[in-house]
Design goal:
This protein is α+β, with helices and mostly antiparallel strands and 291 residues long. It contains ten helices and twelve strands. It has two domains: 233 residues, 3-Layer(bab) Sandwich (Hsp33 domain); 49 residues, CBS domain Like, CATH 3.90.1280.10. β3 and β4 form a beta hairpin. The termini are far apart. The model has no long low-confidence stretch (mean pLDDT 95).
Amino acid sequence: MGKLVRMIDEEGTLSVIAADSTDIVREMRSIHGTSKVCSAALGRMLTAATMMGSTLKGKDDSITVKINGGGPCGTVLAVSDSDGNVRGCIGKADISLPLNKKGKLDVAGAVGNNGFVTVIKDLGLKEPYIGKTPIVSGEIAEDITSYYAVSEQIPTVCALGVLTEHDNGEIICAGGFMIQLLPTADDTIIERVEESIKDLPPVTKMLSDGMTPEEICKKALSKFNLQLLDETNTAYRCTCSRERVEKALIATGKSGLSEMAEDETTEVVCNFCHKKYHFSKEEIQKMLKRV
């Protein structure tokens, strides 16, 4: 299980969320068989989505975050519910790239920087909220920071990290934190935040040293007195079902179903968990009658 905490400073000027998503990213890798750089890209996106999802108010609310910068890994997408449970997928999971100039996994090279970050919030209204901002770097954390600043006008600091074994690509640890200023914050608060984070170690260093999400929040904002709002266990959780797949097939319309009905069996594979669903020719024909 992953772990996520939300905290607020006692003056009510900012909030901070931190997540240990190690187990989530390990489950993702076991499902998708991601290469090291793709584990880092999708792992960062899952971590961002779990934190963003935890800010939703409604029990049935959800958030989808996707980025496509024209890089070789294609679209990187994650979906979270309001409890921070996430699922995700990536266009090409097995690409490999040389390390970047800093000797790190080249996530920006895999994602690319010629495209957009898209955030879709399903809040149970007639239409979902959709925000879209240009990619800043392709490193994902910087792009999430930019999204909040441009689309939602919320000053944000976002840090994300995934640490992998050099030889076999196993996930050592993964996590992140997100600091957001509240409307009551002024320039002095911004200065205190900048002072707090200027010498902060990478998230993966703090996690590999055994720090908890709550301890990471307090270290990231050492100049503030923080109060715990809540603590949640999170997981990689797919919500697919045969009923949902059937609805998706019906949504393809008569032409799509007619083409499927020519085959004895139609196989559908979930993009998020790779579970396979099989529908017989007779079942497809019954769907046709319902269209």
